[in-house]
Amino acid sequence: MDIDRNTAVALLKKYNQNPFHLRHAWTVEAVMRYFAKANGYADEAEFWGIAGLLHDIDFEKFPEEHCKKAPELLAEINTSERLVHAVCSHGWNLTVDVAPEHFMEKVLYATDELTGLIWACSIMLPSKSVKDLQLKTIRKKFRNEQFAAGCSRHVIAVGAELLGWTLDELFERTLVAMQETEEAVEALSNG
């Protein structure tokens, strides 16, 4: 194991106080753990989760240096080069030229923006719950680039391609991951 979760959370909160950014970190962490377990990497679920938790470590305080400042911040807790690469690779062709190489990095790249789009879709529902969200709504909102405009459709599409999945497969798998982990994310966001 690289670092423990408590150390990762302390670093996250040192550089991120915005409730929206923290919720996004909890969401991506939960989704990454889910994908690890669902894809035969259960023994790596902690590492996958911490990569998800810390993926935007530098975004709130250093948005112009996103994924470039991360190695310096992660060095504060002596993370491995493997974790640094994973965190930086989600900014591939956006802010850095660090390409996602491993399956875990490709999942992080593909799901980061998509979790934001799915969450934006869910808060429009009367229940505000991702459990009530349907795949057809995600498809429709994905095509409407004015909706959740900050969520890059290009990155999501490239992520699906990197994984060898169709967009529908990526949408469905990420939706299920978010549905399965919604209560845990809510508890972290409200606690």
What are its keywords?
191 residues; mainly alpha; 9 helices
Largest sheet: none
Distance between the termini: 26 Å
Helix content: 55-70%
Mean pLDDT: 96
Total number of domains: 1
Shape: globular
Please mark out the parts with pLDDT under 50 across 5 or more consecutive residues, or reply none.
none
Strand content: under 5%
The total strand number stands at: 0
List the helices and strands and how they pair.
Elements: H1 5-15, H2 19-38, H3 45-54, H4 70-75, H5 81-89, H6 103-122, H7 135-143, H8 153-163, H9 167-190
Helix pairs in contact: 1-3, 2-3, 2-6, 2-9, 3-5, 5-6, 6-8, 6-9
Describe this structure in words.
The chain is mainly alpha-helical and 191 residues long. It has one domain. The chain is 63% helix and 0% strand. The protein has helices spanning 5-15, 19-38, 45-54, 70-75, 81-89, 103-122, 135-143, 153-163, 167-190. Helix 2 (19-38) runs antiparallel to helix 3, helix 6 packs across helix 8 and helix 6 packs across helix 9. The relative contact order is 0.14. The model has no long low-confidence stretch (mean pLDDT 96).
Short précis:
The protein has 191 residues and is mainly α.
